[in-house]
Amino acid sequence: MPELPEVETTKLGISPHVVGGKICEVIVQRSDLRWPVSPELGEMAGVVFVSVKRRSKYLLLETDSGQVVLVHLGMSGSLRLVPPAEEWRKHDHIGITLSGGLQLRYHDPRRFGLVLVVPLSEIQTHPLLKNLGPEPLEEGFTGAHLHAALRGKTIALKVAIMDAKVVVGVGNIYASESLFRAGIHPRLPAEKLSKPKAERLVAAIKEVLTESITQGGTTLRDFLNSDGQPGYFKQRLFVYGRKGEPCRVCETPISHAVLGQRATFWCAVCQRR
Ligand SMILES: [Zn+2]
Fold this sequence. Notes:
CATH class of the largest domain: Mainly Alpha
Bound molecules: zinc ion
Number of strands: 10
Largest sheet: 4 strands, antiparallel
Strand content: 15-25%
Helix content: 10-25%
Structural class: alpha+beta
Number of helices: 5
Oligomer: single chain
Low-confidence stretches: none
Order of helices and strands: HEEEEEEEEHHHHEE
Mean pLDDT: 92
CATH topology of the largest domain: Helicase, Ruva Protein, domain 3
C-alpha cells in the first residue's frame, strides 16, 4: 500500500513535469473509484497546474482556476507520466494530457483511490482533510505535541501513533520500526509515554520516514518509465515481518502479536516498557 514516503516520492517525481503544465485533454476511462471521479475533471482543459502539495497521503494538484485536483492512491494506486499515445494498461483509469507533451496516467487495480476536484477555498474544511493531525516531518510535530495528544488514551501506544488525529502518515510498518528505534514497547498504554520517551519516539518517526523518502529518491526515474510501477521501498527492516528471526541488535527472536487488528513486531529485550 502506498504510504507517506511513497506519496511524497510521487509528489517529487511528478512535480517537475506537472507544475506549469496546461491541461490539454482529460480522459476518464473509469470513474467508479472509492469516491466517484468528479465530473468537473473532464472540464479542466486550458487550466494550468501551479503546484503539487502533499497532505498526509493525499496529493493536492493546485491549479490557476482556483480548483485543486485531490488524489489518493488508495491500496494499489500509482501515477506515472507517459507519452499520450502510449497504450493504456489494464487498470489505467485516467489520463491528463499536459502541454509539455506528457500524460499523467492514474493506475489503480483495486480502485480504492480517488480523484476529486475541490475548490481551493474548501480544501481545508474538506471532510477527508479537516480532521487530520499534524504532519510528522513538520516542525509542529514535537515530543510535547505527541505527549499532549496521548493524554488520557489507554490504548496501546502503537495503535495510538497510527491514529491520523494524533499524527498522519505513520503506517503499520513505520509504527513498528519507529518504536524499535526508540526502544519503546508497542503495548505501552499510550498515556504512560513519558516526555523523554515521546521526544525519542518523535525523533525515530522522523528518521524512519525521512530515510524511506531518501531511498525513494532513487526510484524517481520510474515515474517516466512506461512499464514502471513507482517503486515501493525496500528499507532495511529491523522488526517488521521478522517474527522469530534474531534481533539485529541483540539476537533475541523478534516477537509478534496482533494489536488493533494489525500485525505488530518488537524485540522484547531492546523494547522495554
Ligand atoms: Zn533486540
